[in-house]
Amino acid sequence: MSELTYESTARELATERGVLRYHEAGVGPPLLMLHGSGPGVTGWRNFRGNLPVFAEFFRCLVLEFPGFGVSDPTDEHPMIAAPAAVTRFLDGLGLGQVDVIGNSMGGIVAARLATEQPDRVRRLVTIGGVGRNLFSPGPGEGLNLLVEFTEDPTREKLVAWLHSMVYDRSLITEELIEERWEQATDPDTLASARRMYGRKALRAAMAASADAPPPWAMLHRITAQTLLTWGRDDRVSPLDMAIVPMRTIPNAELHVFPNCGHWAMIEQKTAWENAVLSFLMRKDEAR
């Protein structure tokens, strides 16, 4: 396979609510990859290191959520806009059933898709994020640092947040800091982030959802075979959050990676890829 670059994999899909941008690589069964949130995040940055491995077996589709500076912007809360964007994306490409990998926020969106449109998700893989704190304080350290950066975006606060994402701080290179800083401080992207993680926005979201069932309470409706992957040392969504989805999703299994923070697909790249590929390619048992 030729080298997978940003330019060679970049694609666009026009929809009735703006252009959705994405990256595509490989042939085979469709595999939708959904990124997380945070300063300077993109789908490409979350999954670029994993694409060559998965593209050997799947048609990989890395969607860029509206509100993060790549796809056309949205006036909505990015988390609210994301599920509809996924549906528009799948419909626009004429895709019925897919496998889905979701990192953090992307995992929450993927779980909602599997809950509300069960026929569209064959197998589901999440990376942290899904569930609720049982023993650890909530929100986690990483989320608190994310709010602090969103309220007052300085380079020092960005670095503090990035350090909370990993077990091994040597992964936070100057190159990574600079590419994240450039996008995170773009005025439109920052405004979108404040709709999501500003303190005022968080209080409003809590008030608006006070009478609605929380997402973790709906996990028992997921019928897809599910693999929950988690960093043992995750300081954004601590490991105890995995207990509820592990117990309530009927066909769920949990894989925990040692010496690993919130970015399991980056920090434990080879082990994570091996576990996920084995799960996605496992033959269905006769029932």
CATH architecture annotation of one domain: 3-Layer(aba) Sandwich
Strand content: 15-25%
* CATH class category label of one domain: Alpha Beta
What characterizes the major β-sheet? 8 strands, mixed
Q: Can you tell me the CATH topology of one domain?
A: Rossmann fold
Rg over C-alpha atoms, rounded to the nearest angstrom? 18 Å
Portion in helices? 40-55%
Strand order of the largest sheet: 1-2-4-3-5-6-7-8
Q: Give the class from helix and strand content and strand pairing.
A: alpha/beta
Query: What's the overall average pLDDT, rounded?
Result: 93
Ranges with pLDDT <50 over ≥5 residues? none
Shape: globular
Alpha carbon gap, first and last residue: 37 Å
* Count of extended strands: 8
Fourth CATH level, the homologous superfamily of one domain? Alpha/Beta hydrolase fold, catalytic domain
Order of helices and strands: HEEEHHEHEHEHHHHHEHEHH
Number of helices: 13
